[in-house]
Amino acid sequence: MLFSVLLIVSTLALTTVEALADKTSDELKDEKDKTEQEKEENEGKLNATNSTIYSLTSELGTVEDSIEETTSALTQIMLELELLDVDIANKETDIDNATVALNDAILREQEQYDAMKIRIQYLYETGNEDLLTVYMESGSISEALTRADYIEGLYSYDRQMLGEYQDTVLEVSELKSSLETEREELLDLQAEYEEEQASMELVIDELQELSDDYAAKISAAQSQANQYAATIAAQNAALQSLDAQITEAEAEEARKKAEEEAKLLAEAAQNGTGVTVTTTGNVTYDTTPIYNSGGSDLGKAIANYGCQFIGNPYVYGGTSLTQGADCSGFTMSVYKNFGYNLPRSSSAQQSVGREVSYSEAQPGDIICYSGHVAIYIGNGQIVHASTPSGGIKIGSATFRTIITVRRVI
Predict the structure, then answer these.
(1) Which residue range(s) make up the domain with 314?
(2) pTM beyond 0.70, yes or no
(3) In the chain, how many H helices and how many E strands?
């Protein structure tokens, strides 16, 4: 993505440079205004897209929270189902055990019943069912009573055992029935949990689908935002290029205008009509001697232009030719009028252009001293922002030791 953005920026910037290379400063300014307006529109779109991304991200967070909560509840339901499976398995084991116990009790009841029937049948078949017969066949009353008690005890035992087995069968049967009822309740609860599980899984699927939709929208919006950002970056690069071209175009236009004016002034000097300048303080100076010196017409025009500000104040750190300038601010501003951009400090101006000897100095050259600069106007003189007390004035070029002479044009 970064590579794509850089490619877009460099391509648009290069296209802008090529398309605008031959335009005037006014045309370039119009193009800059148009680019700034388009950039502002794209910034508005980018802000709106980022707002959409923020809103979508917030909504996605809400959906993801719901997914997390529902998943947590689903996990609990699944845990409950696992525990129910264990309880149901245990309950079925208990039912199996109760079934075995019931079958055993029924068997014992039947065995007791069958044994009792055999004994009763035996007594009737042998004729011993009549107690009188028992008495008559007994050797004594005591023996008769004993036999009668035995028979009666046997009856009582059989009835007691049969009753106990019947009670056991009933008890085990009720236990089995109760266990089966409990199992049915567990199975009903299991069905409810399974239904709830299916419902939660459906909700999670729907939420996940919604989450994926939000994610897709955020991705698309982010892609759109990246495109806007790339376009804005390209427009910023184009604006920087336009600023540079405007500066260069203005400088070139200023140079052409200055050259035309310099040519006219030189022709006036050659025709003997003389050349004068009127300062901003309404003082007129004869600058014809500048044009009687050697050098280029443009250099003479620069020297002549600098003389227009004689009498204006020296201001430390200033660059205004009318309100006040220091030495390097003065030379920088004079040259800027002719389309040349000099560095701000006097030390940096010692390296501009090319060096010439003082004997070769021509009007418009920059005379450099230690911590000071001036513009040479010919005949051994300079115009410069001298001191706070002297202001902008004409002086001797050799008033201080010259470090270097720089020819810019």
Answers:
(1) 274-407
(2) no
(3) 8, 10
